[in-house]
Amino acid sequence: MTDRAALIEASFAAAIAAAGDPVPLVYARLFAMHPGMEAEFWRDRSGAIRGEMLTRVFEAIMDMAGPQQWARLYIESEAVTHDNYGISRHVFADFFPLVAATIRDAAGSALTPAMVAAWDDLLSEVSDMIAQLPGSDTPQRVHDVEAILPTGVRGISFPAS
């Protein structure tokens, strides 16, 4: 494991030790920053989709911080996938710094200057990579649950696929 990966992993451990499950913290920050995104998770009643998404982001961060065997292609493909979901590219790009800020806040005084530097280095690399991707011409979808679902349908449950 590289020094950068070890420092980022240590920041994850410090954040989880101090604040517990980071999933609600990350998504509260996402929804505060981009309120329309909450409507995108209307099917995620249990939080499983958010948890799975954040787990994959953590795995990609650790690969980017260390061996860089697969995360670049994964992030590039997820940018295109999210384009097709109607998620704007700037919202997609905001997610990595948002995760880092959540981890930093949760870790609090346990966060060292070396951990901050490791995160800053990684975020710069991810930001540059996303900025170099071809732009998306997919129009952003309407992010208003009331506009998507008719009145009274919010409680509908869909069969598992």
- Count the E strands: 0
Strand fraction:
under 5%
Task: Give the class from helix and strand content and strand pairing.
Answer: mainly alpha
Distance between the termini: 38 Å
Helix count, DSSP H or I runs of 4 or more residues? 7
Write the layout of secondary structure elements.
Blueprint: H1 3-19, H2 23-33, H3 48-65, H4 71-85, H5 89-107, H6 113-131, H7 145-148
Helix pairs in contact: 1-3, 1-5, 1-6, 2-5, 3-4, 5-6
Give an account of the 3D structure.
It is built from seven helices and no strands. The protein has 161 residues and is mainly α. It has helices spanning 3-19, 23-33, 48-65, 71-85, 89-107, 113-131, 145-148. Helix 1 (3-19) packs across helix 5, helix 3 (48-65) runs antiparallel to helix 4 and helix 5 (89-107) runs antiparallel to helix 6. 64% of the residues lie in helices and 0% in strands.
